[in-house]
């Protein structure tokens, strides 16, 4: 083959399907789609690129460390928690497709002023805050719902307190060794890898499926003494099987690994967190939607996460999510508690 021919093939090889193109292609499948949801997803992708840039150079720009304030959960806010919250809220407000936002970093519903738009968003702007300053993977988690209140009016708390089954889309961004955006609109789970030199996400993991069974368990055993007897028994069972304990301490990172390799992530109720630590509206519902779309399961130990009727904006829940056979197994142990 002529040298230039070879070069030509190399330099004209397709880069891949860009996120924008993929969203547009998916939209064409729905004759009544109006493009608002597509634009909303693009708004989230844009803000994530800015946050990705800030995370990558955090050590040089002084944005590591605490912001000095506390969020509604009484947690010390990291500077990047505040910056990510600001960036996503602005992108969603300016984008015009979101009328209301619930964020981990804000006490109440944020009214964006876009009262004619039909979507609301719940978001964990920066997940895994304890890992920001130590260069370990962190993430962003989001859910999108159709509002229930009338168009042209401000968003209401009822627009936000919807069951996970009502999600129209959900996803996360993982800021790790590579940056990935993974999302679903109820038609499979698709992963995109960020190409920094082009400033664009490209399809790298189409139609992701979780393994039916696995040998990885993710739990912070530091709270072991306050776990219920059934969780202690389940952990013994994991160790008898010589499964691998893997725990990053960033929910998005642990979830993503288990999605790719098979596994289970557990955050049971503990003495410190009697209702569990993770938040239903902007952490668990999104990952439960994704894992079910990928063939997995998500429960609070008593019911399917997506069937939980939310009561408050920042409510917490115990969370067991991952490969279906592994979640069913931990459920068997948990059911013993009720006997
Ligand atoms: O330190 P712990 O108790 O193991 O909790 C770790 C968990 O808490 C979280 O950091 C909570 O999320 P935020 O960082 O968004 O508050 C999860 O990402 C993680 O899985
Ligand atoms: Mg979080
Ligand atoms: Mg967070």
TrEMBL record:
Record: residues binding substrate: 127-130, 220, 247, 265-267, 277
Subcellular location: Cytoplasm
EC number of this enzyme: 3.1.3.11
Any GO MF annotation of the entry: fructose 1,6-bisphosphate 1-phosphatase activity
Cofactor needs: Mg(2+)
Subunit: Homotetramer.
Domain of life assignment: Bacteria
InterPro entries: FBPase_C_dom, FBPase_class-1, FBPase_N, FBPtase
Stored HAMAP family: FBPase_class1 (MF_01855)
Domain named Fructose-1-6-bisphosphatase class 1 C-terminal: residues: 210-334
Entry binding sites for Mg(2+) 2: 124, 127, 283
Keywords (A to Z) from UniProt: Carbohydrate metabolism, Cytoplasm, Hydrolase, Magnesium, Metal-binding
Family recorded in the similarity comment: Belongs to the FBPase class 1 family.
Name under which the protein is recorded: Fructose-1,6-bisphosphatase class 1
Cofactor details (free text): Binds 2 magnesium ions per subunit.
One of the Pfam families matching this protein, by short name: FBPase_C
Domain Fructose-1-6-bisphosphatase class I N-terminal: 19-206
Annotated metabolic or biological route of this protein: Carbohydrate biosynthesis
One of the GO BP terms on file: fructose 6-phosphate metabolic process
CDD domains: FBPase (cd00354)
Record GO cellular component, one term: cytosol
Binding site for Mg(2+) 1: 104, 124, 126
Catalytic activity, reaction form: beta-D-fructose 1,6-bisphosphate + H2O = beta-D-fructose 6-phosphate + phosphate
């Amino acid at each position: 083959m002529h040298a230039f021919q070879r070069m030509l093939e190399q330099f004209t090889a397709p880069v891949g399907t860009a996120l924008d193109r993929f969203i547009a292609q998916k939209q064409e499948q729905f004759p009544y789609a109006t493009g608002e949801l597509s634009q909303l997803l693009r708004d989230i992708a844009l803000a994530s690129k800015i946050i990705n840039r800030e995370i990558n150079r955090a050590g040089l720009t002084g944005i590591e460390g605490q912001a000095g304030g506390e969020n509604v959960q009484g947690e010390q806010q990291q500077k990047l928690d505040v910056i990510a919250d600001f960036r996503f809220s602005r992108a969603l407000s300016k984008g015009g497709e979101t009328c209301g936002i619930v964020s981990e970093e804000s006490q109440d519903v944020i009214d964006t002023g876009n009262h004619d738009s039909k979507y609301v968003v719940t978001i964990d702007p920066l997940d895994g805050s304890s890992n920001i300053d130590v260069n370990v993977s962190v993430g962003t988690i989001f859910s999108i719902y159709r509002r229930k209140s009338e168009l042209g009016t401000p968003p209401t708390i009822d627009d936000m307190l919807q069951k996970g089954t009502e999600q129209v889309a959900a996803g996360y961004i993982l800021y790790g060794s590579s940056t990935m955006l993974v999302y679903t609109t109820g038609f499979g789970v698709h992963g995109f890898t960020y190409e920094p030199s082009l400033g664009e996400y490209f399809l790298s993991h189409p139609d992701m499926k979780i393994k039916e069974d696995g040998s990885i368990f993710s739990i912070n055993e530091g709270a072991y003494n306050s776990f219920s007897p059934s969780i202690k028994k389940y952990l013994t069972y994991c160790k008898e099987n010589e499964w691998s304990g893997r725990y990053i301490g960033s929910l998005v990172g642990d979830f993503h690994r288990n999605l790719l390799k098979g596994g289970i992530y557990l955050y049971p109720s503990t003495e410190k967190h009697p209702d569990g630590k993770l938040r239903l509206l902007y952490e668990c519902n999104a990952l439960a939607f994704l894992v079910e779309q990928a063939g997995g399961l998500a429960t609070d130990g008593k019911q399917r996460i997506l069937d939980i009727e939310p009561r408050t904006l920042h409510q917490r829940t115990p969370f067991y999510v991952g490969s279906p056979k592994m979640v069913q197994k931990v459920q068997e142990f948990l059911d013993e508690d009720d006997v």
